[in-house]
Amino acid sequence: MNKRIEVILFKGWAWMVLSMLLAAVNAHAQTAMINAQSRHTTSLNGEWNVILDPTGIGEWRQIWQERKPLVKTDFVEYSFEGSPLLKVPGDFNSQMRELTYFEGIVWYKKEFSYAAGKNKRLFVHFGAVNYLTDVYLNGEKIGSHEGGFTPFQFEITQKIKPGTNSLIVKVDNKRLKNGLPGLGYDWLNYGGITRDVNLIETGNTYIEDYSIQLRKGSQKEVSGWVKLNGADKQNHIKIRIPELKFERSVKSGNNGVAGLQFSSSFKLWSPDDPKLYKVIIETETDTVEDEIGFRNIAVKGNKVMLNGKEIFLKGINIHEENPFKGARAFSKEDALLLLNQAKQLGCNLVRLAHYPHNENMIKQAERMGLMVWSELPVYQHIEFSDTAVLSKMDLMLKEMVRRDRNRCSVVIWSLSNETYDGTPNRTKALASLTQVCRQLDSTRLVTHVTNSQSYNNNAFKVWDSLYKYTDIISVNEYIGWYIPWQGKPENVTWNVAFPGKPVFISEFGGEALFGNVSEAADEAASWREEYQQQIYIKQLRMFNTIPNLCGVAPWLLFDYRSLGRMHPVYQKGYNRKGLLSEKGERKKAWFIMEQYYKRK
Question: Across the strands, what pairs with 144?
Fold first, then answer.
């Protein structure tokens, strides 16, 4: 090749790489405004054109430029025209057979027209994209986001153009060693634009965030605030609760924040009576409506107290999967499908494992009287010694708390699951994260889930350095499945660190294939319903021996997809620990838990 051409090509490549690095440094997602559903929105849901990029070459080809041949000797080796279509929201794995187990890059494109009003601002808001996201508008990169389960947005007020606009989203769901979660986890790694995409139009100054919840320890006093975003940060703000004939005006300071303190005679939210109030927040340029419930959750000694009364947490674990479709759950209908089964089981709490679920799940649970345990994807083998991981945990925590701070159904923030005491920097990092969580929100309980207990001679020793920082001691234990029984369940003895705290059994159970029944099945390898049923019978007998037991949650509601489950006859790519099959059929263990919860 001509040396001059080589130099030009090298300089062009070097400039492109430098431009990409600068873009990565300068373009970051903005933390999303809360309660997006009540804003002035234009949905970008529907069919999007996609280009599959399993080799990752699309970055080099700069797909976002959407080049077209200009002369007859030109050709371009990509095109959105004539490309496949995928539905948004939705994972790509369940929509195209060739993507069933795919972990890699898919480029999405949506064209839209929008005429923004005078003195208005415009944002593109994503409910969630799994996992790494780069967003381009009209050939320009507008930002990036990491994390598959929390919302983010970009302001495009000055970037939108008259006529047709082109929005291109690069989605990469490859597992990362320093990702959250990391390389290994027990659920299908659904990739894609998995939640709603909206354009949101606001005034020049809009209501960005607010907190309107009862002060911890009180059943009538609200301690909150409202935060404005825009040039006119000093603004008069009115808060109204029409049903209570309540109205309060406050003024924000130079930082756009207005404190809020008031009392009222609330009818408190509870599983038996999930009361919600319409709350209206108004400024001169913006109005946001919300439905907010008021309740108080606390620990008193070794008891969990809701609104000042002891409550036993009758839980169930749920993954964000529509079992009938084998797809990522995202809609109101998906939420009702899952939560109605939890209600039928007799639950008053759902543990939404192992990541923040979509807002439809949280809001429907709230309306149905189900308390919510919301969890970060800090799952098992996390690289706590990597400073980048610590920053990611901090951001994901803030995004999770910010989105659901006003959802009274959320009673527990779970900050990790099955991490290990000996992992470098683990306890220090999670202790620091716990402190940040309490600073962000002091009104809910905080826990870390562990499975590092020992079981010898029918005695349980439950200890972890994280228990020092938690409100509840949460334990995953699988006696009868991963660990054999060593004696009679009613004779198990428990030695629990920090004996003054409540204990919650956050996972237990075993696997069975629905319809695989035999009276003679007494071996785990049989995968029989009777074996799973017997595990549950013995577990319930053992629960009577656990000091300070405040609740339990079987693992889990439905059988769900997981690539690590490789038995060709009984699993077929499914974790079979569900009380229900992926078709909604009730296993024998279901009825054991249903009767237990009726008695509780």
Answer: 134
- Contact (Cβ atoms closer than 8 angstroms) between residue 109 and residue 167: yes
Do the domains 299-599 and 215-294 match in fold? no
Maximum Cα interatomic distance, the chain, rounded to a whole number of Å? 84
Third-level CATH fold of 19-203 = Jelly Rolls (2.60.120)
Q: Report the run of H or E that residue 46 belongs to, with start and end.
A: strand 46-53
The string over 527-555, giving b where at least 16 C-beta atoms fall within 10 Å of a residue's C-beta and e elsewhere, is bbbbbbbbbbbbbbebbeebebbbbbbbb
CATH superfamily of the domain spanning 215-294: Immunoglobulins (2.60.40.10)
Whole-number pLDDT of residue 31: 84
Contact 528, 518 (CB under 8 A): yes
Domain spanning 299-599: which superfamily?
Answer: Glycosidases (3.20.20.80)
- Point out the residues of the chain with pLDDT beneath 50: 1-27
pLDDT at 28: 60
Cα dihedral angle (207, 211, 212, 215), rounded to 10 degrees?
-160
- Residue 26's SS3 state is helix
- Dihedrals phi, psi of 472, to nearest 5 degrees: -125, 140
Signed CA dihedral, 416, 421, 427, 429: sign only = negative
